[in-house]
Amino acid sequence: MKLAGKADGTFKVGYWDTAQGNPPSNLIGQIRGTPTLKFIVPSKKNKRNSNKKKMVKDYNGERQVGAMYSYAKAMMPGYIEKLNGEKDLEKFMAKADKYALPKFLLFTKARATQTITKALSTEFRRRALFATIKLSKVNIDLVKKYNVNTKENNVLLVLKDGDEAPVVLEKKYNLKNGIKFLKEHALKKPYYEDEKAQAILKAREAEKSEL
Fold it and tell me: 80-195 — its CATH code?
């Protein structure tokens, strides 16, 4: 099986030469003819430390790049909170604090969730909590609160503890820059394995037991 990647890196594409034999059916299902296109993502039924179970979908659309790309975008998983207003932000903050996760906010003009955003939220799942906020009148208070530059199409920032100002991604919002930025500020490992996160959670439990 050989792999190729789309230019922006948000998808990985593999192909299997059936002249050498079909792939194991227990991995990707039956192959009844060629070319056969399948889309594979981890199952939501996986345990938090495993991606063993897969969801396999057959692609039956047009064999055109545009159609296949649209299908892949629609099928991409995303672990993103969509916020509208201060109340949603409060819930987001509480959820992140529950697991001692760093908080990333993307202020965006995009109408739909971008593939870059889905890819980042998946790559850093359980190492950070990712939210999108539409640059609109509904969220004007949040825009002012974080001093967001509304001339930009995308503004990605990470919230800091206490009164410390948020750190903003100064470079163009793309997958390469986004990964570098999140690596700098996200947990090094999933929260249930990360020493820093576990220390915070244990200290919190100790405080509760003393009350």
Answer: 3.40.30.10
